[in-house]
């Protein structure tokens, strides 16, 4: 039986716990030159003196710890160690959750595989590997993001961080800090949409379909349209459209209130409400956070491609001078 656990494959990648570091002969035989420590415990630096490079990622083994932000750096460290011709040991306290997560992230990027496939592969080396639920969700998000070299610039990651901040604020009974609210229309570059929502009173565009959050039976059904007829039939069981924060909501959402109402920025009609602590839709689904437009206060309208690609609230281009007098 091997004294240290080698991940199957043609590279010298190993996984273990703290006790693995005391198996000096086995580590030397495996030509371990790089060690990645993924834990927050005080470390005896004498244990790492035999190795060329040592990297520490200080995280706890808890669901809400952000290990995702470290994946690019840990992947580079592992790859650099392997490229140098040496062996790499990734360890945490027990060699079960944190170390497994980092090895899985590396395998996912290296071989373009899913979290489930990566976990199955790691378990061939160390059967007790079991990332906690939060880390597994982060690995799933990492896969959905296509394992980028820079996760922090990825919209999906930024949105995930924003939702974590909302959840933390909710747990404290507070609204998110103003500078941490993510106004989605300021970040999304793809402005394509199937339809838009207009204020029923003044017809001011308030949102387009790509900012809606699907829930329950709230998925709209596209129907035939006329110029003034809604292009999408309202879902029968839901009285609200839930959506991401949009820039026209900024004056209200940055006040630090946990809940309030949303007014059309043009005619100041009450068009919806928000509750950072969450609220239950009429379809019985609980939404968190809850930022909504009331279906009775807005219309769904399918527009031309040129109009839909125009950001909500911006004016249409003026008519051509040659057509003004027609």
TrEMBL record:
SMART domains: DSPc. PROSITE patterns: TYR_PHOSPHATASE_1, TYR_PHOSPHATASE_2, TYR_PHOSPHATASE_DUAL. Residues 305-326 are annotated as: Disordered. It comes from the Eukaryota. Pfam families: DSPc. GO terms for molecular function: protein tyrosine phosphatase activity; protein tyrosine/serine/threonine phosphatase activity. The keyword Hydrolase applies. It is an enzyme of class 3 (hydrolase). Residues 5-148 form the Tyrosine-protein phosphatase domain. Residues 69-126 form the Tyrosine specific protein phosphatases domain. GO terms for cellular component: nucleus. The keyword Hydrolase applies. Keywords: Hydrolase, Protein phosphatase. The active site is at 92 (phosphocysteine intermediate). Its EC number is 3.1.3.48. Belongs to the protein-tyrosine phosphatase family. Non-receptor class dual specificity subfamily. This is protein-tyrosine-phosphatase. It comes from Pleomassaria siparia CBS 279.74.
């Amino acid at each position: 039986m091997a004294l240290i656990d080698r991940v199957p494959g043609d590279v010298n990648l190993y996984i273990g716990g703290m006790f693995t570091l005391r198996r000096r002969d086995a580590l030397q035989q495996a030509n371990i030159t790089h060690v990645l420590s993924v834990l927050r415990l005080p470390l005896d630096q004498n244990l790492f003196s035999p190795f060329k490079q040592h990297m520490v990622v200080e995280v706890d083994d808890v669901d809400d710890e952000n290990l995702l932000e470290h994946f690019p750096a840990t992947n580079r460290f592992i790859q650099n160690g392997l490229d140098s011709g040496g062996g790499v040991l990734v360890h945490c306290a027990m060699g079960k959750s944190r170390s497994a997560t980092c090895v899985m992230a590396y395998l996912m990027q290296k071989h373009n595989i899913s979290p489930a496939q990566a976990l199955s592969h790691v378990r061939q080396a160390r059967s007790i590997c079991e990332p906690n639920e939060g880390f597994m969700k982060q690995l799933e998000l990492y896969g959905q993001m296509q394992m980028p070299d820079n996760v922090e610039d990825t919209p999906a990651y930024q949105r995930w961080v924003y939702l974590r901040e909302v959840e933390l604020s909710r747990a404290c009974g507070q609204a998110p800090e103003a500078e941490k609210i993510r106004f989605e229309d300021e970040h999304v570059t793809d402005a394509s949409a199937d339809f838009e929502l207009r204020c029923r009173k003044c017809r001011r565009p308030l949102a387009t379909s790509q900012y809606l959050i699907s829930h329950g039976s709230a998925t709209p059904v596209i129907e035939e349209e006329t110029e003034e007829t809604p292009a999408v039939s309202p879902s029968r069981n839901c009285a609200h459209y839930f959506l991401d924060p949009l820039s026209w909501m900024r004056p209200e959402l940055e006040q630090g209130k946990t809940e309030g109402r949303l007014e059309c920025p043009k005619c100041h009609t009450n068009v919806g409400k928000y509750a950072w602590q969450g609220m239950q839709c009429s379809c019985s689904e609980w939404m968190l956070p809850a930022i909504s437009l009331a279906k009775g206060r807005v219309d769904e309208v399918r527009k031309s491609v040129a109009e839909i690609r125009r950001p909500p609230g911006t004016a249409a281009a003026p008519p051509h001078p040659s057509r003004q007098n027609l």
